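S.,

Sequence below, as promised.
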Amino acid sequence: MTYPNPLRVVTRNLTPNIVISSCSFKRFDKVNFGARMALFNYDNSVIVWSAIPYGEEVDKAIQKLTGGSAFDVTHLIIPDKEHTMAAKSFKEKYPAMKIIAMESVDLGESCPIDYTITSKYANKLIDASVLEEIGIKESAILKNFQFVYLPHHANKELVTYDFNSKILFEADLLFNLGNGEKLEQFSPETGYPEDYNPYLGWSCSSRYLHPDSTVGRFLLNKICNTAQSAEGLKTIYNWDFKLIVMCHGNVIEHDAKTKFKTLFSSVL
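The prediction came back faster than expected:
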């Protein structure tokens, strides 16, 4: 699994206090998946979701988010057990940063997990009261986020909901590749030609990984273990989300709940 070097990133605002940074990424060093990080600014506390490697491009994203105002990177949310590669680079830069992750994630002694979400909270709404039970006291998390943990998903997905913006953030629960749109993660801004086709060669099968594909729905439901994740998926669907930000593929900015229901129609 590789990020490009040098890393080229396209960063844009979703809201005045949320930016997303998108870049290319290859699964198994061969398959074009793309990657995406989100940054939130709540009262000058910067919360990182799904980190990409820390460096100049991340600094630019933080500056875009904060406008040059004073800030502190206070939390990193790891969205599933596969999205951990860049966590240490943030911890080295911001050693006081707290990490929220699910059980089974071990980043070593130099990068401890501060708040662990366990199967005790499987498929349930993780709101402020539950977060406090887990040990989280910081208002930047308690006042702005809710979560659902899907431990039966192959990658143990921790889905994040920013209820102020009504945006859902997920890593591998839903992909949005091959939907006929040009991919933001493989664009001229990230170092690719305007006419680049990300679905050639080893990447040919990734074109099916989106909610409107029969093949994609089969694969994503299998990875999710939908029957055992049903209550969690219903809890997620009950959120009033308008957008879905995923790690792999274009952000779903229209009909997000419809797309989610299409993908998991067997339990919704």
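The chain has one domain: 10-263.

Coffee later?
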